[in-house]
């Protein structure tokens, strides 16, 4: 599945990531690319326990 993410930065150096469709799921990275990678990992880590319950 694909989820929209919101990337934000205050200094143009490090990035925060919020996943609006997955409450409580957020991440960060030192670069834009790292922030995207960490967002994918955060979504997986956040949803994995829900999938295991089935």
UniProtKB/TrEMBL annotation:
Q: Which domain of life is it from?
A: Bacteria
Task: Tell me which residues make up the HicB-like antitoxin of toxin-antitoxin system domain.
Answer: 3-51
Q: Which SUPFAM superfamilies does this entry report, sorted A to Z? A: TTHA1013/TTHA0281-like (SSF143100)
InterPro entries xref list: HicB-like, TA_system_antitoxin, TTHA1013/TTHA0281-like
- This chain belongs to the protein called Type II toxin-antitoxin system HicB family antitoxin
């Amino acid at each position: 599945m694909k989820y929209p993410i919101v990337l934000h930065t205050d200094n143009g150096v490090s990035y925060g990531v919020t996943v609006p469709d997955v409450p409580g799921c957020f991440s960060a990275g030192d670069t834009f690319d790292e922030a995207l990678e960490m967002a994918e990992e955060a979504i997986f880590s956040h949803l994995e326990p829900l999938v295991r319950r089935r």
